[in-house]
Amino acid sequence: MLRYTFHRLLLMIPTLLGVAVLVFVLLRMMPGDIVELRLLMDGGQVSPEALATERVRLGLDKPFWLQFYDWITGIMVGDFGTSMWTGRPVIEEIGSRLGLSLQVAVMATILAVSIAIPLGTISALYKDSWIDHVVRIFAIAGLAVPSFWLGMVIILLLLYNFQWIPPLTYVPIWEDPIHNLSQLIWPAIAVGYRYSAVATRMTRSTLLEVLQEDYIRTARAKGVYERLVISRHAVRNALLPVVTVIGLEFAFLIGGLVVTEQVFNLNGIGKLFVETVTRNDYTMVQALVMLVAAFFITVNFVVDLLYAALDPRIRYR
Amino acid sequence: MTLVESYQQPETKARSARSDSVLLDVDNLHVHFETTRGMVRAVEGLSFDVKRGEIVAIVGESGSGKSVSALSIMRLLPKMTGRIPHGRITFDGRNLLELSDEEMREIRGRHISMIFQEPMTSLNPILTIGLQITEPLQIHLGMTHEQAHERAIELLGLVGIPDPARRLEQYPHQFSGGMRQRVMIAIGLACNPKLIIADEPTTALDVTIQAQILELMKDLSRRLNIALIIITHNLGVVARYADRVIVMYAARLVEEGVAENVFHKPRHPYSMGLLRSVPRLDRPRGAKLETIEGLPPNLAIMMSGCRFAPRCPFKIEKCAEEPALLRTDLGGLSRCHRHEEIAAGKLAWTGGGGGGEVSAARKTTPLLSVRDLAKHFEVRSGLRGSGGTVRAVQDVSFDIYPGETLGLVGESGCGKTTVGRLILKLEQPSAGEIRFAGTDITKASAAEMKALRRKIQVIFQDPYSSLNPRMTVGEIIGEPLHVYKLAAGKREQHARVQELLQQVGLRPEMAARYPHQLSGGQRQRVGIARALAMEPSFIVCDEAVSALDVSIQGQIINLLEDLQRRLGLAYLFIAHDLAVVRHISMRVVVMYFGRVMEVADRDTIYAEPLHPYTKVLLDAAPVPDPTIEKGREPRLIKGELPSHLAPPSGCVFNTRCPLASEECRQIVPPLREIKPGHAVACIKV
Ligand SMILES: Nc1ncnc2c1ncn2[C@@H]1O[C@H](COP(=O)(O)OP(=O)(O)O)[C@@H](O)[C@H]1O
Ligand code: SF4
Ligand code: SF4
Ligand SMILES: [Mg+2]
Fold first, then answer.
1. CA distance A9 to chain B (A)
2. What rounded mean pLDDT belongs to chain B?
């Protein structure tokens, strides 16, 4: 197991290197130039000399391969450089927002899992009954309704009914939990709904399949309590594919919440992503892409480990 | 007809007087399924009883209602679709059909256990064997964890699993099929039940393992006075183990009697036909199998009269009336108007069959020539990865001539399937060559292979994994026709599909069904139809008929022989059923643990087997004759196949060979020709 873990961790390096090359090249192929964008923002006149000095200061005058080399070697010692726009270290810029995005993602996941698994199970157990229909409508609606729209509805409802809007400034949960939760619970609900819908459907369909398996019949033939047949024999087997879906959705939530963050006016990774891309802030975009890629790979890896933990056939292959 | 009337038994049933010794009494049981194709009457008016400690066999073709009857007794029919509109099932004085779910649950696993056909899928893959055995002990007997653990160790010992304490920690995938079935039996025995229902318990297992398992079940049944219902389509199994036999056909009981009588003096035409359509090791080989022509009826359609009439050679006008279940001269029951004439010996079976000898192969150049074939797999066990080499196939050589059938027998895991896969080029050999029509296919280019692919077809062992669950049967069979452009247009394709369905014994309306709506036997037939669609010149038949019913198996074997005669097809017929291999093959190769043990022509190998393994294999196979079977001592081969990661030194068979000596552990015996055409790999021959 240890060897396997180490092996997988080692494999992350070439993958991330590939992502690095790709994002680096693609960014430089995009039209636009951060220096002009920033200095000409207010519509004034700037001398070509000023533009050139600025370029030198940002290192944009160097050949591409050297820029790439500097960037990669920087990453290796943990230095992601500074934002070309604000001048602050990239780590700081991302760090302050990562906490927020991560928290929303984790809360949405907890919400989704705690809704999806019981709902999906009930729906499968009472297939074609009214409960099943209600759950399926709930799930289909979850897939059809965009999260940002649900977010707007939530804000409006809060406003009309309680004349209250969630706080606008982010405070880490350990500093002021009440403030923090009253801000972030709403976006978590907004995205968690869709998320739970996906997971509910998955739970329902895999459980229905598992319930047809011979070993379920064996369990019943042994006189096992129906409750135990479901929880011990069926649901645990049905969870395997659900874990994959949850993992993928979770990875997506980091950096994928562009519009929802806009709606709730959250300074998350998604919003940062959009800002930096429109500003051509190379160092920031690069760092963000690397972050999201690393996230996806890690989540995948964790999903595989979970699989091994849940399924002895993988553990003892 | 009113509903009540329709369940009235048409006969004044003359059944054995009920006594205290009756454990289970099924009385006029009807089972219906609501399906999209209408209501299926899966069981109609079934009545039988089982006495304490008795072994009763239920035989019949797939779909005749055997499993449904068993599941009804367990009250495990699918909740949504299955229904028991009428009947009584009295077990130990209580009508099971009137019990609450909770009362029934208390009986399942406690007083009645069930063992299922598929040992590979009947155990939960993610729970330890220990948990799965201790579960009923803790639930029914209220044992503590420690007590249950102790008992589980005892049970595993009882069913012959070595090193039980360690095995309890393991998971099902770490067990062989035979071992899993032993675990299932251990689970069944756990709470000392009064009745065990075994639904095709050994169908998925090898002969030597089958003999071990059945011997074990019989022994336990006798020793612990447990009644046993064995559901099977293997008449040899019935002959050896059953006290009484129940024959079912199309949802009804057609004959019931003492095993000896049903086998030697059947009183129903269906039983007569069934016994004649099995290839038998205890009789001279007939040129062609006699079969029961036609197909079992569709149970979704209401029928009047005798259900066997469309296939019965003795049909008379009276057969348009429903026959009653009547007592025969031998004290059994038969549902046939003419059972007295049968008893008087006036009716002799004249079913299909007869026909000429299988055309002898012309010894020209071989179509397929295999030389020194070897296949090694590098394996790592577990994520920790202790590696090793599995020598799945070693030094295998044989030829197959055009129009010939070469039988390849041996237990599962001995490399038969790997040889097949190498020939199909699904694997690359580690050494050796395979020439097909002059081309060495191990080295053939992609273009050469493309041409050969259609010519070499396969009929798979496992129909479940090879059929796309989202396609209808018609689409599955039609796909190769379409891909290889073997049918011009939709209409011709449709006609060909219908023809193929007919050939493999499926009703035409099956084309619209999906694989999950078919029984195991029906699925296997679809797989065969799909291979036949390609019009090949050589077919690897990997356990192709093992899952089929006796009457259909006979039809398929005859069909394969017909095709061979007409099209000059050659077969590599891989199977573990020695009687079937003997029937269809012209020469036979016996493999064990990756090596060829013996090669000879069919008659020689069955009449004068020389290799100890061949002898053991022939001994383990039960023949459908209770007098022979019950009279002979079980000659069980000890143990299972050795581990591929720790192969025996010297002769691979030495760990199980009755003749093994020190010498056998030293040298690997080469395959030596003893007589022309008869080669054996044993130093003691
Ligand atoms: N769940 C089900 N839904 C609909 N029909 C079924 C179901 N199970 C079995 N049947 C039908 O009941 C009949 C008897 O099946 P079964 O008892 O499995 O046969 P056997 O065990 O003798 O092979 C078959 O026609 C089969 O198609
Ligand atoms: S009743 Fe008639 S058709 Fe039916 S089995 Fe007897 S002879 Fe054949
Ligand atoms: S060589 Fe020895 S162990 Fe092998 S089959 Fe012959 S007698 Fe048995
Ligand atoms: Mg069955």
1. 15
2. 84
Q: Which of B395, B380, B546 shows the shortest CA–CA distance to A7?
A: B380
Do residues B115 and B181 lie in contact, with contact meaning Cβ atoms separated by under 8 Å? yes
Q: Do B116 and A214 touch (CB under 8 A)?
A: yes
Tens digits of per-residue pLDDT, B441-482?
888 888 888 778 888 888 876 666 778 888 999 999 888 888
In sequence order, which residues have a C-beta less than 8 Å from that of residue B599 and are 6 or more positions away? Answer: B398, B587, B588, B589, B590, B671, B677, B678, B679
B356 touches chain A (CB under 8 A): no
How far does the centroid of ligand 4 lie from the alpha carbon of residue B421, in Å?
Answer: 30
* Cα A251 from Cα A105, distance rounded (Å): 8
**Which of A169-178, B139-148, B285-294 holds the top average pLDDT?**
B139-148
Phi, psi (rounded to 5 degrees) for A68: -65, -45
Give CA separation, A92 vs A291, B82, B254, B506, in Å. Answer: 13, 65, 84, 71
Residue nearest to atom 1 of ligand 1 (CA): B78
Which ligand ends up closest to the CA of B31?
1
Tell me the angle at which helices A177-211 and A236-256 cross, rounded to the nearest 10 degrees: 140
Model confidence band, residue B1 (pLDDT cutoffs 50, 70, 90): very low
Other beta carbons less than 10 A from residue A276's beta carbon: 25
Q: Which of B575, B580, B183 is nearest to B411 (CA)?
A: B575
What is the token pair recorded at A164?
């209250």
Q: Which residue in B301, B293, B325, B320 sits closest to B309, CA to CA?
A: B320
Of the ranges A137-146, A302-311, B551-560, B615-624, which one carries the lowest mean pLDDT score? B551-560
Mean pLDDT value across residues B510-534: 79
Q: What is the mean pLDDT of residues B615-620?
A: 83
> What percent of chain A shows pLDDT beyond 70?
96
Residue B78 and residue B211 in contact, taking contact as beta carbons nearer than 8 Å: no
User: Tokens 């994520």 belong to which residue?
Assistant: B383
Report phi then psi at B249, rounded to 5: -145, 125
DSSP B358: P
Q: What is the model's pLDDT at position B510?
A: 86
Contacts of B154 (CB under 8 A, 6+ apart): B164
Q: Is the ipTM of this complex over 0.85?
A: no
Q: Provide the pairing of β-strand B431-436 with B439-440.
A: antiparallel
Secondary structure letter of residue A235 according to DSSP = I
The beta-strand segments (E) located in B136-226 are 195-199
Q: Give the pLDDT confidence of A148-206 residue by residue, as tens digits.
A: 889 889 989 998 998 888 887 888 888 888 888 888 889 999 999 989 999 999 999 99
**Model confidence band, residue A133 (pLDDT cutoffs 50, 70, 90):** very high
| CA-based torsion, A45, A50, A56, A62: positive or negative | positive
| Beta-ladder partners of B539 | B457, B571
Query: Bridge-partner residues for B538, per DSSP?
Result: B456, B570
Ordered by where they begin, the domains of chain A are 2-76 (no CATH), 99-316 (1.10.3720.10)
One-letter amino acid of B228: L
Residue with tokens 């004649």: B276
**Set of chain A residues whose Cβ sits within 8 Å of the Cβ of B109:** 221-224
A316–B381 C-beta distance less than 8 A:
yes
Render B255-320 in DSSP notation, one character per residue.
EEEEHHHHHHS--SHHHHHHHHSS--TTSPPPSS-----S-PPPTTS---S-TTGGG-TT--GGGG
Name the H helices within chain A: 2-29, 34-39, 48-58, 64-76, 90-125, 130-144, 147-162, 177-211, 214-221, 226-228, 236-256, 258-263, 269-278, 282-310, 312-315
Query: A35-44 pLDDT, tens per residue?
Result: 777 766 666 6
pLDDT for the residue numbered A316 = 66
pLDDT band at A109 (very low <50, low <70, confident <90, very high): very high
